[in-house]
Amino acid sequence: MSQEQKEEKLASGGLMERIKKGEVKRHSKGYFLIRGLTYALIIIAVLGFCLFLGSFIFFAIRATGIFFLPIFGLLGLRVFFLSFPWILILIVTLLIILTEGLLKKFHVVYSKPLLYSVVAVIALVFLGSFIVERTHLHVGLFERAQNDMLPIMGPVYRGFGGRQINDTYIGEVTAVLTDTLIIETTEGREMKVVISSETNCPCGIEQIDTGDMVVVVGKEKNGEISALGVNEITEDDNMYWRRPPRNFPRGPGPAEGFLRETFNRP
Description:
With 266 residues, the protein is of the alpha+beta class. The protein has helices at 3-20, 29-64, 73-83, 86-103, 107-110, 114-133, 137-146, 154-161, 259-262; strands at 168-177, 180-185, 190-194, 213-221, 224-233. The chain folds into two domains: 29-158, no CATH class; 165-262, CATH 2.40.50.140.
């Protein structure tokens, strides 16, 4: 008999002795079944919340337009990192850690290397969040929030999904002049975009025409933006935006629609 087998036998014998003395409680199979089901339900609930928050992060990134920013150089990268929803990322990370801890309650998980289960949970959350975001879940909730019809999550959607990013402006081109664009932003403001030799325009400034939707990065002063970056937003970007109705006071208010709807407007 090997040393390992001897130690296992001694441990087993010690456990039986503790059970006989009443130091260890014995439970029925039903107890372990109920406990396992309870852990499973908690894991499903935590993962579900993870997928909701994860998909909302993807939605917020598209709704605010920050996924455009890295192409505009150092300023774009700075604004991108400052505007990224790090708080939500932290919450999702903590939920993943909690999920991993709960999964360790099951023999099939704790008997395997930790790396396997961690990678599996992260992959599930990432891919699941991406799939959920492609549905109309957050679109509908965002629209309800903009119309003050979402009592609990409304402030979250208005805070992340519809916020204005510093030095970043999204709007429709209403006029194209020499080295200048006139845009109406998603907040209903008319702004002048000044194009210079320093302006980075991946789509080509000559390709931008009246009626196009654009994202502009630059410093604004008295309604005039010194553009460091301009890029056209196409239908393929599937980006959301809001615009207050013409007769509605400027500022936070009901949603008129989303960006992709503007491509079908008369």
